[in-house]
């Protein structure tokens, strides 16, 4: 699939489409999405202070590179590659990007207007539930989505941006269709994520992902879902192809690689942030998995970036 140039932002003029009550997004006359702007592989803006703001628009974003966090409803949410970001109208939010770091994401910003042109302020999950006629639970912003959903969301955002770059009259059709596909995927995935509450193995995976720095034992994980440790390990391996502790180490390694590549933080600090007990153990583990030391990996990554 073709994708837009990286760091590409488009502002969609209201006069070039999104006629209320028309196109593929009629939703039986209840409300029509209207694109404001979209961005593909854009650097997350650096905010000088923790200053939340609100809009009468919806944001859907997907993090591609780097680790940072954002404030949402005065609560700090960690983000990393694969994190899905959803903000509804009236929700206070802002990005928190540490100095000398870089995080890259793609996003669409749109409003929902009713038949008289009034912008809606309902939470996105309520709107999607009304459209689909089924329960659509609220997304937890910052949730790291599975690879297949990550690709689907990224493809839909790319098609929104590419549609904006197309000449009218085809532009409206392409943008409408891509945005509707994106919203349908969000609705379907939201219902799937609600099943986590009934899936003890998914609960353990979510527990690991949310507590990478913590040395939670298999016994503690098993206790959380009322299983024996051995039974948990067997079922987790059946589902994820590895053990809970190996899964956690892989996530820690991915987080460390991202920090080494995108930041200038000391290796000792990165080891601490990613949950390794010591920088010595971190270096040994990293070298065994990657084939080079953390320092050498960072040096090569910096060299590759300068070359490009």
UniProtKB/TrEMBL annotation:
Gene3D superfamilies per record: Homeodomain-like, Jelly Rolls
Pfam (any one): AraC_binding
Gene Ontology terms for molecular function: DNA-binding transcription factor activity; isomerase activity; sequence-specific DNA binding
Keywords: Cytoplasm, DNA-binding, Isomerase, Transcription, Transcription regulation
The UniProt record lists the keyword Transcription: yes
Protein name stated in the entry: AraC-like DNA-binding protein/mannose-6-phosphate isomerase-like protein (Cupin superfamily)
Domain HTH araC/xylS-type positions: 202-300
PANTHER family reported in the protein's UniProt record: HTH-TYPE TRANSCRIPTIONAL ACTIVATOR RHAS, HTH-TYPE TRANSCRIPTIONAL ACTIVATOR RHAS-RELATED
Keyword Cell membrane carried by entry: no
């Amino acid at each position: 699939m073709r994708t837009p140039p990286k760091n590409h932002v488009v502002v969609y003029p209201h006069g070039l489409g999104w006629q209320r009550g028309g196109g593929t997004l009629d939703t039986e006359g209840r409300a029509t999405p209207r694109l404001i702007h979209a961005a593909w592989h854009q650097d997350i803006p650096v905010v000088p202070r923790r200053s939340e703001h609100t809009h009468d628009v919806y944001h859907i974003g997907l993090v591609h590179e780097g680790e940072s966090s954002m404030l949402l409803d005065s609560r700090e949410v960690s983000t990393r590659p694969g994190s899905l970001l959803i903000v509804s109208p009236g929700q206070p939010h802002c990005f928190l990007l540490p100095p000398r770091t870089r995080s890259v994401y793609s996003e669409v910003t749109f409003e929902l207007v009713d038949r008289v042109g009034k912008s809606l302020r309902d939470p996105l999950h309520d709107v999607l539930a009304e459209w689909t006629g089924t329960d659509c639970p609220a997304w937890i912003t910052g949730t790291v989505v599975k690879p297949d959903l990550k690709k689907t969301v990224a493809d839909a955002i790319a098609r929104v941006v590419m549609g904006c770059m197309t000449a009218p009259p085809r532009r409206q059709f392409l943008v409408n269709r891509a945005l509707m596909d994106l919203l349908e995927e969000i609705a379907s995935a939201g219902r799937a994520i609600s099943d986590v509450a009934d899936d003890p193995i998914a609960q353990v995976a979510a527990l690991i992902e949310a507590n990478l720095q913590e040395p939670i034992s298999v016994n503690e994980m098993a206790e959380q879902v009322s299983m024996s440790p051995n039974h948990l390990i067997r079922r987790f391996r059946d589902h994820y192809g590895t053990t809970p502790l190996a899964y956690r180490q892989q996530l820690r390694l991915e987080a460390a690689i991202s920090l080494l590549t995108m930041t200038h933080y000391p290796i000792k600090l990165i080891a601490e942030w990613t949950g390794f007990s010591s920088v010595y153990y971190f270096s040994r583990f990293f070298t065994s998995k990657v084939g080079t030391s953390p320092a050498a990996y960072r040096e090569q990554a910096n060299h590759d970036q300068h070359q490009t």
